[in-house]
Amino acid sequence: MTQPIEGETRTFERTFTVEDVQQFAALSGDDQPRHTEPDEDGRVMVQGLLTATLPTKMGSDAEVLASTMEFNFHQPVYTDESITCRSTYDTVVERDDRYEFTSDVVCENEAGETVLTATIEGIILKDA
Asked: Helix-strand-coil percent breakdown of the chain, rounded to 5?
């Protein structure tokens, strides 16, 4: 466990593949044609909740136990498009056994356009 620090920003980048979208479609049941039929460039639209796995992966790296996750989807994400996700601790309150926090998340595509924003509340347990 790494102590969260108010104002600290963490970054994660990922490019989803057609195979990622197909696997998520099979797992989630979200297999609409927009997620299974390639466009003229051979890309498919990434499911919104698959895009939302970017901040959840970052939370996992920090051993977060989320209590609230509010996502706003601003525009579609497509396969073979690099997405950069930045999470900043907005508030951090230290307790005896944990840190309580809120963080703001912004995910952008290669053109610098915002594709997803999120507000996350949760805790990080201190080491026993």
From this structure: 20, 45, 35
Nearest Cα to Cα of residue 45 among 70, 81, 5: 81
Contact 121, 68 (CB under 8 A): yes
pTM: 0.92
As for how many domains the chain has, the answer is 1
CA distances, 43 to each of 20, 27, 39 (Å): 12, 20, 5
* Nearest residue to 85 (alpha-carbon basis) of 111, 52, 121: 52
Tell me the per-residue pLDDT of 80-97, one tens digit each, with 9 for 90 and over.
999 999 999 999 999 999
Q: What is the CATH number of the domain that holds 54?
A: 3.10.129.10
Task: Name the strand (E) or helix (H) holding 82.
Answer: strand 82-94
**Domain contains 39:** no
- Residue given tokens 């195979």 in the structure block: 19
Range of the domain at 94: 8-16+46-125
